[in-house]
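MODEL INPUT / OUTPUT PAIR
PAIR INDEX: 1
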Amino acid sequence: MLGLAFKPNIDDLRESPAVKIAEDMLQRSDINLLLVEPNIKCLPSILSKGDLVHIDDISKDIDCIFILVKHRDFNAINFNNIISFV
């Protein structure tokens, strides 16, 4: 999941719909969720089951990408290098 903040380019996660979505996804036992939020250094406790990763650590092993917040840091991502379209 790309982006957890309340709005683009900030570090405020309070009342963020993206955090609620991530929290709901983490309740499923069959999902390994990688969270990318360039504006924070650690996850809040409600998301402790997730893995906070850097944008550069996104690999081709992922099944899907959810872009929840349009941070400027995400503009440079070349999704063709990450996702293989079938």
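PAIR INDEX: 2
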Amino acid sequence: MKTGAQVIEEMRRRGETVTAWANKNGFTFQQVQNVIHGRAKGNWGKSHAVAVKLGMKKGEIINS
């Protein structure tokens, strides 16, 4: 599993901003920032989906 710092470093290597990643994946900038910086733990809802897509936790994303 990746840390927030690793996620940011990967985005920098790709030249991708948090905003661009968020828009591409259907999230808001703030939702992604909150997960990366640990303000949202990623246990439920959108923060869970963000954490899984960023590779910060294992899990499934179930769209209802």
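PAIR 2 NOTE: Residues 4-54 form one domain.
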